[in-house]
Amino acid sequence: MRVHFIAIGGSAMHNIALAVKAAGHIVSGSDDQIFEPSRSRLASRGLLPAQEGWFPEQLTSELDVVVLGMHARPDNPELLQAQHLGLNIQSYPEFLRTCNEHARRVVIGGSHGKTTVTSMILHAMNQMNASTNYMVGAQLEGFDRMVEIDPNRDWCILEGDEYLSSPIDRRPKFFWYGGHFTLLTGIAWDHINVFPTELDYIAQFDAYLETLAPNAAVVWCAEDPKLQQVIHRCPREDLKFVPYKTPDCQPNADGTMTVVFESGDTLTTHLVGTHNIQNLAGARALAAEMGLDASGFDKAIGGFKGAARRLELVHETDNFTVFRDFAHAPSKVKATVHGVKASYPERKVTAVLELHTFSSLNKDFIPTYADAMAGADEAIVFYDPSVLAHKRLPPLNPEFVSKCFGDHPDLRIFTDAAALHDEVQNLAPKDRVLLLMSSGWFGNANWTW
């Protein structure tokens, strides 16, 4: 099979390209910008384009599939050529579905915690020697890449994103997967650029349940009120609904947590924060529905330390601890800050948040961050005016942003990356926990601890 990737440099796209080549197929691709780590990883497999840009002449009738990434625009020259030739153009979720039509598909969705829960299931299956195909949104310890495609595997674990499939396919990605098992972590309005109202956003989850395979199992968080409404109004009688809740947990002196489930079973985990204990409960319930051995799952998950940039511990000494997290939406920020403070109640927590996504930089959405940083002793919010310009959004007034975050007694706004770098660098090695939250890179900050 010959596969060409338009926008091969994306986080998911380059991993899919690597997996397709590893499966023995012929792969080509292009992009107008390719950053690390995509650049090095593509180069190591001979897939890095010779030069950046779009080259319509690469699109010929010999291609079996053209996979289109979200980074490309509808008027992309290669896309236009593929359409002119009548080639088989697929979004990457459609392509993943095609490659896993034979498999039992497990889809983890929801507004937060998708990557963490997906990672938990993959970690446990890996430790239990249960092979599976997969797609996950972060690098995991013990896995060479974020995607695996093997036609001989019976399972496929998919992180289910509610964002658009491609520039020419406005359906959410998780509509494509037709899951036999799914988990929904909760619903909190996001992606205001494509779902301008909260009702628009919630409607995607109503519609998602209609896409599931017949007699699918739906594991869902019973503590989320918006998700409760979606579940209760679902008209499908063939679906099996399995609720879960956050179990009791107690912190231990060594920094671990002991989790006590309703059944009386206990396990010890390195995870930080009540929201991650909730994710663990969901993963455990999903594993049970999948038929995975319960004791084997508990034993495996005890060694799970998290996915990259998901409350990832990046530095620790006796008096200075640094976490890096992908949190950027209000519900994620609030849960992450609360979780870290609850785990370190005697220490000062300094939370640093970068507003980087379209939603987080939208003046109509920013007020939803009210009190999101309230759990931190010190709070810093950073946004880069050049990112606003790139996203074609109007400038933001720092005073407006500050007011949107509520009446925090020690909240500061930074708009200069160099000033932010120096401020955060000067926090070390003072006695505190530093929490860095962003889906971006803080203006390419290079902090040393």
Folded structure, characterized:
The strands form five sheets. Strands 7-6-8-5-11-12-13 form a seven-stranded mixed beta sheet, with helices on both faces. A six-stranded mixed beta sheet has the order 17-18-22-19-20-21, sandwiched between helices. The mean pLDDT is 94. Strand 9 (164-166) and strand 10 form a beta hairpin. The chain folds into three domains: 2-87, 3-Layer(aba) Sandwich (Rossmann fold), CATH 3.40.50.720; 95-301, Mur-like, catalytic domain (UDP-N-acetylmuramoyl-L-alanine:D-glutamate ligase, 3-Layer(aba) Sandwich), CATH 3.40.1190.10; 312-437, Protein-Tyrosine Phosphatase, Chain A (Alpha-Beta Complex). The chain has helices at residues 11-22, 38-44, 77-85, 92-99, 114-127, 198-211, 225-232, 274-290, 294-301, 330-343, 385-390, 398-404, 417-425, and strands at 2-6, 26-30, 65-68, 89-91, 104-109, 133-135, 147-148, 155-159, 164-166, 169-172, 181-184, 217-221, 240-244, 248-251, 257-260, 266-269, 312-316, 320-325, 349-354, 378-382, 411-414, 432-437. By secondary structure, it is an alpha/beta fold.
